[in-house]
Design a protein that fits this description.
about 35% helix; 3 domains; about 400 residues
Length: about 400
């Protein structure tokens, strides 16, 4: 192959290799299968048989399958474990798209009579049943018999559960605005859609909350001087949307009777509301105006910058990893080019030695064109040396 054609072919292969490498590194590519939820063993518990996975929400809860889908249910696993002393443990684990869905489902199943447990991100127990969530996974554990190490074993289980990547492990910011004073334990609820809103006992109907505007809803029960009250926080994407929806809520609240196109509000006792930034706060229940003002006054929005989109800042998707792979590719291609050049040059030298001649080699003395410019400048116009001439006196 001529040397020019070889170089053009090498450049084309180099460019093609760089383009393919950049495309494979920069693009996220097809999603890899999700890892199994439950381990084979943990803290002395050995799995019996194989876990039972399912992508059907009805396998996790036939009664509330649609509600789980609203929270972002993705898949489910159940398994039975056995300890060395013969005790059994039944584990049911549901995975969601993010931690918000797992917390929402946890708050839905949480009962006020449950005791708080330091398991996972949040946990609670009642008799032999333990409920907790870790990241985007909700776990229900039922022991055949409790022991002093039962909670420690579940903490070890929580530590080996798969974790979500990026910001999928962050809880919704609206939860931070629920006041702590007067809060009744285990009454915090979170809703992402109309089904959850009805299930958690919202004082507002779903059409007034308007989930088409992508709000997030948090509720809690509080003790006041007048009795129990429900505090509902609705966070909209912008303060303008919150102001618009507050006007709709006030119009429906003060309407003497249900009007066409305006939903009626079913509340228990007086109803009070206010807006703080993008948050609409609703206080409902048997409480006085003073108690309502005190409860609503504890809700104050403090603007902060929050990034809640997936940044894909993991091992596969970040600019630093891209640059490292580009450098590695350049080193590999450079090494291949160097090896190819050495091989090509060595082959020519070897062929020249074996087959000397005009095909694979050149003669030792190669003729070339010479202009002899120095010799021409030293001679005169008629070929005489420039230093000689005739006398001008005619003698």
């Amino acid at each position: 192959m001529p040397s020019g054609a070889f170089m053009r072919s090498s450049k084309s292969l180099l460019i093609l290799a760089i383009v393919v490498c950049l495309a494979s590194v920069a693009s996220p590519g097809a999603d890899s299968p999700a890892p199994p939820i439950l381990p084979r063993q943990f803290a002395g518990w050995q799995i019996q048989g194989a876990p039972h996975p399912s992508k059907d929400a009805a396998a996790a809860d036939p009664t509330h399958a649609a509600l789980l889908k609203e929270y972002g249910f993705t898949d489910f696993e159940s398994a039975i474990y056995k300890s060395d002393d013969g005790r059994t443990l039944k584990i049911r684990a549901a995975r969601f798209t993010d931690a918000s869905g797992a917390f929402g489902a946890y708050s839905f199943y949480l009962q006020p009579e449950m005791a708080r447990e330091e398991i996972g991100d949040r946990g609670a127990s009642l008799d032999r049943r333990v409920l907790f969530y870790r990241g985007h996974i909700l776990v229900e554990a039922v022991f055949s018999q409790l022991s002093v190490m039962s909670a420690a074993g579940l903490r070890e289980l929580a530590g080996v559960l798969p974790r979500p990547s990026g910001n999928a492990g962050s809880l919704p910011p609206i939860l931070a605005f629920l006041p702590h004073h007067g809060y009744a334990a285990n009454t915090e609820k979170y809703a992402e859609g109309p089904l959850a809103l009805v299930a958690v006992g919202s004082p507002l109907p779903a059409d007034l909350v308007d989930f088409s505007a992508s709000p997030e809803v948090a509720l809690g029960q509080y003790s006041t001087a007048g009795g129990e009250a429900t505090l509902m926080l609705i966070e909209y994407p912008t303060p303008a949307l919150a102001a618009e929806h507050l006007r709709r809520i006030d119009a429906a609240h003060h309407a003497p009777q249900p009007q066409a196109g305006v939903a009626a509000i079913e509340t228990v006792g007086p109803f009070f509301d206010k807006r703080s930034g993008p948050i609409v706060a609703i206080a409902a229940g048997a409480l006085s105006q003073r108690d309502a003002q005190t409860l609503l006054g504890a809700v104050n929005y403090d603007a902060s910058v929050t990034w809640n989109e997936n940044t894909y800042f993991d091992k596969k998707n970040n600019i630093a990893n891209l640059l490292v792979n580009v450098i590695i590719l350049c080193v590999i291609v450079g090494a291949l080019a160097l090896a190819a050049g050495i091989a090509f040059g060595g082959a020519r030298v070897l062929l020249r030695r074996v087959f000397p001649g005009p095909v694979f080699g050149r003669p030792d003395q190669t003729e070339f064109i010479s202009l002899h410019l120095a010799d021409t400048a030293a001679e005169g116009p008629a070929g005489r040396p420039s230093g000689t001439g005739e006398s001008s006196n005619g003698s």
